[in-house]
């Protein structure tokens, strides 16, 4: 089911990217990476992934702003965007969903449940929008 599915992970922290890449590739996903919003937007002009994992706290353009850009662009508006973030204070999840994210996974990730969470989002499960 995961073979051939592509996931774009937008994350400025190298160690986080490596961990997520290893977990996803082990399950047969094609992993695309961007370390900032500019790289992500450039990549999205030539490749449309099946799912986007979005870090929220990035320099220059944050994940909220980038998600809004992705969701308003006709070629990418249908792609599920899942926040992968350490923002876990009261109201952070709601703010993430208002920005257009379709779901939310807290950091640090639980390596035992992470792939199941990703598969649920790929299978159309979404967090109820606000």
Automatic annotation (TrEMBL):
Listed GO biological process terms: phosphorelay signal transduction system
Q: Which InterPro entries is this protein grouped with?
A: CheY-like_superfamily (IPR011006), Sig_transdc_resp-reg_receiver (IPR001789)
Q: Which residues carry this modification: 4-aspartylphosphate?
A: 55
Using the record's annotation, list all stretches that form the Response regulatory domain: 6-122
Which SUPFAM superfamilies does UniProt cross-reference here?
CheY-like
Q: Which UniProt keywords apply?
A: Phosphoprotein, Two-component regulatory system
Per its UniProt record, what PANTHER family does this chain match? HYBRID SIGNAL TRANSDUCTION HISTIDINE KINASE J
Any idea what this protein is called? Answer: Chemotaxis protein CheY
Species for this entry: Bellilinea caldifistulae
């Amino acid at each position: 089911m995961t073979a051939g599915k592509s996931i774009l992970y937008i994350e400025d922290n190298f160690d986080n990217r490596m961990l997520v890449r290893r977990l996803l590739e082990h399950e047969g996903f094609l992993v695309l990476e961007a370390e900032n919003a500019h790289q992500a937007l450039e990549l999205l002009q030539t490749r449309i992934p099946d799912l986007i994992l979005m870090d929220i706290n990035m320099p220059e353009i944050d994940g909220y702003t980038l998600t809004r850009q992705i969701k308003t662009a006709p070629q990418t508006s249908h792609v599920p965007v899942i926040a992968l973030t350490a923002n876990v204070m009261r109201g952070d999840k709601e703010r993430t969903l208002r920005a257009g994210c379709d779901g939310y996974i807290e950091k640090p990730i639980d390596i035992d449940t992470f792939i199941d969470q990703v598969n649920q989002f790929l299978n159309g499960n979404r967090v109820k929008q606000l």
